[in-house]
Amino acid sequence: KQEVTQIPAALSVPEGENLVLNCSFTDSAIYNLQWFRQDPGKGLTSLLLIQSSQREQTSGRLNASLDKSSGRSTLYIAASQPGDSATYLCAPYTNAGKSTFGDGTTLTVKP
Amino acid sequence: GAVVSQHPSWVICKSGTSVKIECRSLDFQATTMFWYRQFPKQSLMLMATSNEGSKATYEQGVEKDKFLINHASLTLSTLTVTSAHPEDSSFYICSARAGTGYSNQPQHFGDGTRLSIL
To answer: How many CB atoms lie within 10 A of CB B92?
Structure first.
């Protein structure tokens, strides 16, 4: 059974800082891994999708890396802004045909 | 980008009522749809996976007769909470994925439905 751990559980930083969110998973037989953000009371917004054959993906100020063999992924956020405040979730997708979600990292970016 | 529409966004009803939640993929064909439940300050718990035209696959501990899932077309899946009780109150979120088999397509989510049973 896939288990996903996200560290830290919560993070509070001043605006402008670069930061790294960590995700680890126990079953490395994944097809892809997706990073999402969730705002309070809302659904999930897809940020980045990394295929199992890829090492990283970039979208604007976001960069996600994947080390499949060690079961780790990181989400790097450059020059953080108050609008980045949300809960960030990672979800590896395995051959069980479903994604498993971590508990998320709740990010607060202070102006 | 791909859009998933979920309705209603908020439901308040009396105990014993059945509630239907709709999930639609607006601009792509969703071969597979997923239904999740989320409790406050917790992550998403997968309830069931549905593939168009076939019966849903429920996760362990999820009552099939309680949570009826229908995925009759490539753009619509419904979740019906039958004879809802206060303990069914939760945030329900659907998601959809294009492609077949072990698709490498991303998963797209609706905005969720807040269900409150009085």
So the answer is: 23
